Task: inverse folding
């Protein structure tokens, strides 16, 4: 009798909570699908500079894989002949095959040199708010950058709704978008999210220089060491004020007028900010992977690193808006580097090349 | 004695059951609390917004000759703009401000009708909104709904939305006209006095007068001011934005 009574109590308590139980019991919950989170790996010296990931577009294995497929797929262009990779070739550090300017779908020619793609995520933290991508800083985030080349009439010349409808009727993409974002839909937003996820994973830190950080540059030749001294000497190359070496990013993520234009045929950052003080300023490119990304400058005017060094040595125009580190007294007569100093500087710059990056199977076409 | 003891056990048992029930099912019992009876002030209604487009006293139409204050003859073939961030203000200063973005495209319909639901009951004396996209949403294009870049109302090279787009031709030579206005500083703000007694679903009829874009205070001349605006560099933008303040009015609430 007593036992029955206790059992009754127990059953009553359990049954009274059935609703609660149903909510917390995982087996009976309609589990929503979650893609697999992905965490970017980068070396210890960048742990001081954690790369920001937007909360509305977290990295996932499936999202990155989708972005990578889209990056290499000409379906994004109007006549299905051109992909992102057409002008951003991994073998050239994701630049355009050594070309000064890129050609659009019908052969049109752009006005600026295609930029490399690596370590982009850090621009979103350290770059100027709303001015982080493109030579003139016209784009604030990687996601928004995706739309420019696709829709530009002299690039891929496609309408975004057309792209979305092509992706929707493709045999593969609907399920890949579902895996990446858990939704039965494809939108221009998700297209940008996927490509941005892939681009955030494109990181380069495997150069001879990176190995040197770990060994106090014991792996450097004397000439490479001499070149690094020229790079950091404010009375010699003084390269590091803009191409920051202490962070190992080799860019300050900022905009400067390096004296390349005597007259501002390309207004640079001022085109975006409308501020006359920004005339002729362009984004500081990272000097990593220079060996692969020729030609150089926003207009690709220099074919070789020797030409670039000679420009800073003796050819910079001094005038309006010139960066103080270009126009300071010690530079007005040029850097006056000796032939050996110039040569060793170039030799040092070549240590920033990361061949494991341009051959990374995670970044290449599948 | 035994009988008393037994009934004592039973009594204690029931107390235990009640105690355990109340503890173990706290969440349930909270959920089970009946919702308070809806009071009149928590009633919600919808508001339809119906915009009719004019050029002065005439209905706005594509490919029809209109004459502005500076005596330009214009034939339009495109009108599109963002209507955003509606805000309804009561006399006591309390506001109802849902996040709203609507893209009005005259290609699709000569009148724009859209509906906003779940607005608390009350009398609203100010009807505010923007033409454009606020700065919080104006610096990323990876957005959905009306802000989907697929609609093409954006600049990709200088990221931001085109707030108001007018295209057409003007003058004897049929010169092409493009007035694409955007940029955070050029958000067009409207605070229209009105009286919306929201005790049932209502319709607010708005008039958009495109002629006002070209006058008050500046008689905007397509011959001398900018007729081809594709970025923020055109000085004409500031004149158009200042003119735009009189572009909308509430014609009736029904």
Result:
């Amino acid at each position: 009798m007593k036992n029955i009574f206790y059992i009754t109590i127990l059953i009553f308590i359990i049954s009274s909570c059935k609703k609660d139980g149903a909510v917390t019991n995982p087996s009976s919950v309609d589990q929503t699908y979650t893609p697999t989170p992905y965490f970017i790996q980068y070396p210890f010296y960048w742990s001081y500079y954690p790369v920001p990931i937007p909360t509305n577009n977290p990295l996932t294995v499936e999202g990155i894989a989708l972005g990578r497929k889209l990056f290499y797929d000409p379906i994004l262009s109007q006549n299905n002949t051109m992909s992102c990779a057409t002008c951003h070739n991994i073998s050239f550090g994701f630049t355009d095959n050594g070309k000064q300017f890129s050609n659009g779908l019908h052969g049109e020619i752009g006005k600026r040199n295609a930029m490399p793609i690596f370590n982009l995520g850090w621009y979103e933290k350290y770059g100027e708010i709303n001015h982080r991508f493109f030579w003139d800083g016209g784009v604030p985030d990687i996601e928004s950058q995706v739309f420019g080349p696709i829709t530009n009439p002299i690039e891929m010349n496609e309408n975004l709704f057309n792209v979305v409808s092509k992706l929707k009727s493709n045999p593969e993409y609907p399920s890949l978008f579902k895996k990446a974002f858990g939704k039965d839909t494809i939108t221009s937003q998700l297209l940008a999210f996927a490509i941005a996820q892939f681009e955030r994973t494109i990181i380069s830190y495997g150069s001879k220089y990176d190995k040197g950080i770990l060994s106090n540059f014991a792996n450097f030749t004397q000439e490479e060491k001499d070149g690094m001294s020229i790079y950091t000497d404010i009375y010699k190359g003084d390269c590091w004020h803009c191409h920051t070496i202490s962070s190992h990013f080799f860019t300050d993520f900022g905009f400067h007028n390096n004296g390349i234009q005597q007259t501002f045929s390309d207004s640079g950052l001022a085109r975006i900010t409308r501020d006359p003080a920004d005339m002729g300023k362009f984004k500081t490119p990272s000097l990593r992977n220079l060996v692969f990304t020729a030609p150089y400058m926003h207009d690709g005017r220099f074919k070789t690193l020797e030409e670039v060094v000679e420009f800073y040595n003796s050819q910079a125009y001094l005038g309006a808006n010139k960066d103080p580190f270009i126009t300071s007294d010690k530079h007005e007569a040029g850097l006056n580097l000796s032939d050996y100093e110039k040569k060793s500087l170039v030799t040092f710059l070549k240590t920033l090349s990361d061949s494991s990056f341009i051959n990374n199977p995670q970044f290449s076409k599948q | 004695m035994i009988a008393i003891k037994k009934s004592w056990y039973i009594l204690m048992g029931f107390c235990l059951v009640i105690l355990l029930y109340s503890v173990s099912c706290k969440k349930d019992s909270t959920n089970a609390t009946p919702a308070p009876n809806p009071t009149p002030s928590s009633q919600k209604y919808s508001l339809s917004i119906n915009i009719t487009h004019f050029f002065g006293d005439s209905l706005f139409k594509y490919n029809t000759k209109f004459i502005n204050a500076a005596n330009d003859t214009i034939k339009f073939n495109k009108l599109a703009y963002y209507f955003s961030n509606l805000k309804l203000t009561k006399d006591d200063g309390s506001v109802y401000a849902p996040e709203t973005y609507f893209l009005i495209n005259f290609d699709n319909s000569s009148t724009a009708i859209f509906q906003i639901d779940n607005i608390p009951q009350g009398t609203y004396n100010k009807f505010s909104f923007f033409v454009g996209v606020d700065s919080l949403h104006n610096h990323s294009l990876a957005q959905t709904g009306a802000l989907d870049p697929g609609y093409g109302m954006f600049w990709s090279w200088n990221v931001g939305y085109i707030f108001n787009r007018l295209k057409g031709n003007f003058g004897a030579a049929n010169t092409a006209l493009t007035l694409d206005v955007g940029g955070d500083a050029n958000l067009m703000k409207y605070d229209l006095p009105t009286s919306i007694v929201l005790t049932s679903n209502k319709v607010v009829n708005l008039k958009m007068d495109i002629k006002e874009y070209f006058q008050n205070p500046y008689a905007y001349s397509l011959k001398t001011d900018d007729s081809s605006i594709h970025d923020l560099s055109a000085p004409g933008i500031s004149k158009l934005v200042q003119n735009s303040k009189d572009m909308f009015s509430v014609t009736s609430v029904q």
Summary: Residues 42-253 of chain B form one domain.
